[in-house]
């Protein structure tokens, strides 16, 4: 079993940054898109680009230009973002809104699940999933999460020279946890990993991202068929056993894909970027290493400060409305910048700085309203286990390259660092 896991992690490290290349709408070649349009997907190191804060201060709901004749708005203010995300009856997140607007996305590429659905479908699906994501039910994963973290640390301890923390630590932890949660058989985990990346990176084009979703769903349909025949003890098996007559295979695959989408790339990015924060601030490193009572609130602060999911799922106005004095018309597309909203001074002073002792404000890193990430508590369990274990095992850990040499994603819904080389001793 240990050899299989080593093979999985080795394969994952080789494949993690491969990019799916397909013809389609390629943002990297559309230099005519104005900075205001691309600003929510760009950063300066760990910080949102300065244009985003300037826009928020001047106009927290601002008009942006998009192709295909779409009338679009960018929301960067905290209160305004919360208002949009909380207005479920006024906005639609249904995938057909994208497919109908001729942006190179076909209806059959609909990933399903919670993120791209509206009530009553969304309500029914979330009701089926919610019991499995309560703290009581998730607590059964606690020992396994700690075991996975320790296994990764043991593996890292055998390395000579620099270690890429992304490949060795940040990505394998949430990947293996999600496998445990879903009940994916060990022999299927190679395929599970292969179909779990590239979907958030728009630098290769929007069509490539949706193509990655389609590939993932094709694979997950196979997993669902196996679970129908012989339900296991994981989330998919539970859904088949308890709600199999209420869910078709498309819905089951979509729910599994949503768990994969929400819990792998995002938590991996948080683990890598959060570690980078600790490596650049020795006082924070020491606090997490030495003070158990700081860990919980520091995790919340890192979630706010980093906000790796940079924008929420696109919303389309169902009706004419006014939000914070701005008139939004039926059919308008609204993009909420979560990274911009979480740096809003309305949350408190000095939001551009990370503070492990800050009394965490109500951040929007997991979204808000009916589409708030259902796996938020699981992600926080992983972060609370991983950060202190890492710095306590390797108290002399440091960057192996100058920080300015690190390569970050250029245009991505989920922000992250490509590699994080560290010296452990």
UniProtKB/TrEMBL annotation:
Keywords: Heme, Iron, Metal-binding, Monooxygenase, Oxidoreductase
InterPro entries: Cyt_P450, Cyt_P450_B, Cyt_P450_CS, Cyt_P450_sf
Pfam families found in the cross-reference section: p450
Stored SUPFAM superfamilies: Cytochrome P450
Keyword Cell membrane among record annotations: no
PANTHER family: P450, PUTATIVE (EUROFUNG)-RELATED (PTHR46696:SF6)
Family, similarity comment: Belongs to the cytochrome P450 family.
Name by which UniProt lists this protein: Cytochrome P450
Organism of derivation: Streptomyces luomodiensis
Lineage: Bacteria, Bacillati, Actinomycetota, Actinomycetes, Kitasatosporales
């Amino acid at each position: 079993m240990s050899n299989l896991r080593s093979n999985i992690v080795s394969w994952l490290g080789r494949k993690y940054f491969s990019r799916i290349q397909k013809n389609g709408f390629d943002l990297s070649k559309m230099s005519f898109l104005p900075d205001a349009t691309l600003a929510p997907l760009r950063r300066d190191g760990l910080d949102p680009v300065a244009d985003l804060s300037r826009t928020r201060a001047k106009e927290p709901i601002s008009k942006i230009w998009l192709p295909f004749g779409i009338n679009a708005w960018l929301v960067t203010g905290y209160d305004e973002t919360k208002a949009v995300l909380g207005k479920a009856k006024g906005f639609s997140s249904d995938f057909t809104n994208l497919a109908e607007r001729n942006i190179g996305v076909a209806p059959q590429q609909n990933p399903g699940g919670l993120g791209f659905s509206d009530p009553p479908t969304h309500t029914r699906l979330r009701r089926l999933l919610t019991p499995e994501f309560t703290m009581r039910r998730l607590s059964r994963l606690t020992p396994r999460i700690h075991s996975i973290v320790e296994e990764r640390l043991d593996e890292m301890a055998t390395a000579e020279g620099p270690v890429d923390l992304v490949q060795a630590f940040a990505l394998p932890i949430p990947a293996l946890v999600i496998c445990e949660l879903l009940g994916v058989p060990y022999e299927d985990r190679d395929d599970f990993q292969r179909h779990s990346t590239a979907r958030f990176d728009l630098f290769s084009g929007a069509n490539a991202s949706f193509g990655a979703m389609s590939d993932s769903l094709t694979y997950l349909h196979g997993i669902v068929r196996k679970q129908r025949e012989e339900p296991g003890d994981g989330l998919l098996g539970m859904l088949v056993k308890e709600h199999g007559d209420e869910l078709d295979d498309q819905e089951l695959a979509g729910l599994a894909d949503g768990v994969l989408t929400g819990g792998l790339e995002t938590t991996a990015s948080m683990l890598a970027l959060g570690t980078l924060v600790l490596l650049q601030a020795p006082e924070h490193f020491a606090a997490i290493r030495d003070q158990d009572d700081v860990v919980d609130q520091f995790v919340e602060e890192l979630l706010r400060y980093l906000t790796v999911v940079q924008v929420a799922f696109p919303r389309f106005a169902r009706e004419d409305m006014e939000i914070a004095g701005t008139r939004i018309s039926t059919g308008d597309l609204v993009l909420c910048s979560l990274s911009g909203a979480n740096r809003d001074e309305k949350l408190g002073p000095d939001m551009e700085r990370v503070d492990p002792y800050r009394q965490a404000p109500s951040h929007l890193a997991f979204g808000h309203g009916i589409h708030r990430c259902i796996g938020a508590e699981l992600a926080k369990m992983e972060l609370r286990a991983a950060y202190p274990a890492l710095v306590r095992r390797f108290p002399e850990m440091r960057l192996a390259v100058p920080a300015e040499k690190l390569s970050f994603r250029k245009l991505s819904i989920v922000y992250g660092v490509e590699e994080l080389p560290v010296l452990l001793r």
